[in-house]
Amino acid sequence: MAGAITLERILALQAAYIRCIDNNALESWPEFFLDPCLYIVTTAENHKNGFEAGIIYADTKGMLIDRIAALRNANVYEKQSYRHILGLPHILRNGGDEAESETPFMVVRIMHDGRNDIFATGLYLDTCRAVGSELKFSKRVVVCDSSRVDTLMALPL
Predict the structure, then answer these.
(1) Calpha distance 132→136 (Å, rounded)
(2) Which residue among 26, 32, 75, 103 has its CA within the 20 to 30 Å range from the CA of 69?
(3) Is-contact 126 98, C-beta < 8 A?
């Protein structure tokens, strides 16, 4: 049973993932991924057309760690936080220790002055793998509904 991927386990992974980002515990964010992994943020149009390049592209856990280090130590951006709202995951494929799912999301960005804006909506297209008792992302493609994406995407989605 430790390797079986259930909806309950996917929900728990999703909840922990968004809690990490929304609570600004970003140093823990890369731990949700296997190594190697794939993390892409792209638009629905680019995804539909099969364009692999993304607004954010990382194919190793080290790249995710570097992104957070740069965010904390090098990048200059207006202080902000996120609040994620997720729909229920739909399991597309479930084969033993690996499952594919899609989950609708909405992210509200809260600026340092208190302004709230809907920052992004879209789908998480995930491949999760069971590693012992843990579930991790081997692939997360964040497909944003709008082709208008803020070029200052500081925090991971």
Answers:
(1) 10
(2) 103
(3) no
pLDDT tens string 81-95: 899 999 999 999 998
pLDDT at 2 over 60: no
In a domain, 111, yes or no: yes
C-alpha to C-alpha distances, 63 to 6, 36, 38, nearest whole angstrom: 29, 10, 10
At 23, is the secondary structure helix, strand, or coil? coil
Residue 125 CA to residue 117 CA, distance in Å, equals 23
Q: How many CB atoms lie within 10 A of CB 74?
A: 7
For residues 94 and 127, give the distance between their C-alpha atoms in angstroms, rounded to a whole number.
Answer: 10
Element (H, E) at 74: none
Strand ranges inside 1-133, DSSP E: 33-43, 56-58, 80-86, 90-95, 98-111, 116-131
Query: What domain count does the chain have?
Result: 1
Cα 35 from Cα 47, distance rounded (Å) = 23
